[in-house]
């Protein structure tokens, strides 16, 4: 049994990770910033620890008690993105300081968006991060994986999540948000010619924003989707989502498949998830 401390345990990804870790027989303590979050964690079988990403003393203490730390939380206030990235960096530095010399495990999450527009070819872990919006968060990745953690006796890893994370229903993820907006406005949208995504496995290789919009239109019985500008999309989705869905962000998961044996079940895909209304697919 591994004693795990996890941030973001009540979130979209963290709740699934917690469920799988408990099924594997591990014990979990999870950061809870409110009474409601604490109750949710208890219901999941996770022991809550009151605090947030600003209570660095709590984070350090929990890291020292744990065998492994999974840092999955991020402040998703994109009107203050720079501040959110800086907070995340301080959290990672705190975990590194607490775990130094322990040979314990530290895993953090980031996103393939650090590579921004990858063009026509899928990127991988060796692709240089270009100057621009993703640079600051990529620096936190490097802090964890190369600059400090690995050289200070910590088994560290950074996991990049694709733009579209799907599998279970959640109103905060991009596909359900797009479905809800299309149903409300009576129009399904995509930007420009429809950016290309590679969502991390062979089932989704080369899926375009236009194809997703077509699936959304069919789902909510709308006419074929229309191409709009980034500015027009921002009025419906907000500026951040519009910007993200205007870029081609392709990324290969070959290394994860080869080294970790990771594989998505046959038949699961973002288009099927969309066709089923953003619900969990079997």
TrEMBL record:
<dbReference type="InterPro" id="IPR036291">
    <property type="entry name" value="NAD(P)-bd_dom_sf"/>
</dbReference>
<dbReference type="InterPro" id="IPR051783">
    <property type="entry name" value="NAD(P)-dependent_oxidoreduct"/>
</dbReference>
<dbReference type="Pfam" id="PF01370">
    <property type="entry name" value="Epimerase"/>
</dbReference>
<dbReference type="GO" id="GO:0005737">
    <property type="term" value="C:cytoplasm"/>
</dbReference>
<dbReference type="InterPro" id="IPR001509">
    <property type="entry name" value="Epimerase_deHydtase"/>
</dbReference>
<protein>
    <recommendedName>
        <fullName>NAD-dependent epimerase/dehydratase domain-containing protein</fullName>
    </recommendedName>
</protein>
<dbReference type="GO" id="GO:0004029">
    <property type="term" value="F:aldehyde dehydrogenase (NAD+) activity"/>
</dbReference>
<feature type="domain" description="NAD-dependent epimerase/dehydratase">
    <location>
        <begin position="4"/>
        <end position="186"/>
    </location>
</feature>
């Amino acid at each position: 049994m591994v004693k795990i401390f996890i941030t973001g345990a009540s979130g979209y990804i963290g709740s699934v990770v917690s469920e799988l870790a408990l099924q594997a027989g591990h014990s979990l303590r999870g950061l809870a910033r409110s009474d409601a979050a604490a109750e949710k964690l208890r219901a999941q079988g996770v022991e809550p620890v009151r605090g947030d990403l600003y209570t660095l003393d709590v984070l350090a203490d929990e890291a020292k008690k744990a065998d492994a730390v999974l840092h999955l939380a991020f402040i998703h206030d994109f009107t203050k993105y720079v501040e959110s990235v800086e907070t995340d960096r301080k959290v990672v530095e705190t975990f590194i300081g607490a775990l130094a010399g322990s040979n314990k495990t530290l895993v953090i999450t980031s996103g393939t968006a650090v590579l921004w527009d990858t063009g026509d070819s899928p990127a991988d872990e060796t692709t240089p991060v270009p100057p621009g919006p993703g640079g600051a968060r990529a620096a936190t990745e490097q802090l964890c994986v190369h600059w400090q953690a690995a050289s200070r006796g910590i088994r560290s890893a950074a996991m990049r999540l694709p733009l579209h994370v799907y599998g279970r229903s959640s109103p905060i993820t991009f596909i359900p948000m797009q479905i809800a907006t299309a149903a409300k406005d009576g129009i399904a949208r995509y930007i420009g010619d429809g950016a290309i995504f590679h969502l991390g496995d062979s089932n989704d290789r080369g899926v375009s924003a236009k194809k997703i919009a077509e699936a959304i239109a069919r789902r909510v019985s709308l006419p074929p989707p229309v191409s709009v500008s980034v500015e027009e999309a921002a009025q419906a989705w907000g500026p951040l989502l519009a910007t993200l869905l205007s870029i081609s962000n392709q990324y290969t998961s070959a290394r994860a498949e080869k080294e970790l044996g990771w594989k998505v079940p046959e038949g699961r895909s973002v288009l099927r998830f969309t066709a089923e209304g953003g619900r969990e697919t079997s």
